[in-house]
Design goal:
Largest sheet: none
Structural class: mainly alpha
Protein name: EamA family transporter
Family: Belongs to the EamA transporter family.
Keywords: Membrane, Transmembrane, Transmembrane helix
Number of strands: 0
Organism: Hydrogeniiclostridium mannosilyticum
Distance between the termini: 36 Å
InterPro entries: EamA_dom, EmrE-like
Shape: globular
Strand content: under 5%
Length: 137
């Protein structure tokens, strides 16, 4: 089931790029990011209340709060940089570079989370990195 959700995520991420590129015409990238963030905020909290998940807030540990906050800051920075890159460059070039975050994620997961790396993961990461370079050159 995780694969279905991951595939849907990829489809919506692709749609996000196209919609953002069209919608940002004549709009400051920081303002566009702020508008997107408000929409995401309303949608996320709507899902929390729709599913009754708000009852879990009291059970969140201080450590989890710290890491979720840091994750939120990283997300914000990512979105700000992404929208600025999208405003300055072609969507077909910005998106592959942004998606190269997969290679960085695998490396960070190995270093900090001690996740195993197989030869398939190394080969796949190398192919992703090579493919990204081919697309942008």
């Amino acid at each position: 089931m995780w694969f279905v959700f991951a595939l849907l995520s990829a489809c919506f991420a692709a749609l996000t790029t196209i919609l953002a590129k069209v919608g940002m015409d004549g709009v400051n990238s920081n303002l566009a990011t702020a508008i997107r963030t408000v929409v995401v905020l309303v949608m996320a909290w709507g899902m929390v209340f729709l599913t009754g998940a708000q009852q879990g807030i009291s059970g969140i540990t201080p450590r989890a709060w710290i890491f979720l906050t840091l994750s939120g800051l990283a997300t914000g920075a990512s979105w700000l940089f992404y929208y600025r890159a999208l405003q300055l460059g072609d969507a077909s070039l910005v998106a592959p570079v942004d998606k190269s975050s997969l290679v960085i994620t695998i490396l960070l997961a190995f270093i900090f989370l001690h996740e195993a790396i197989s030869w398939k993961v190394i080969l796949g990461s190398a192919l992703i990195a090579a493919g990204t370079f081919v697309l942008i050159l």
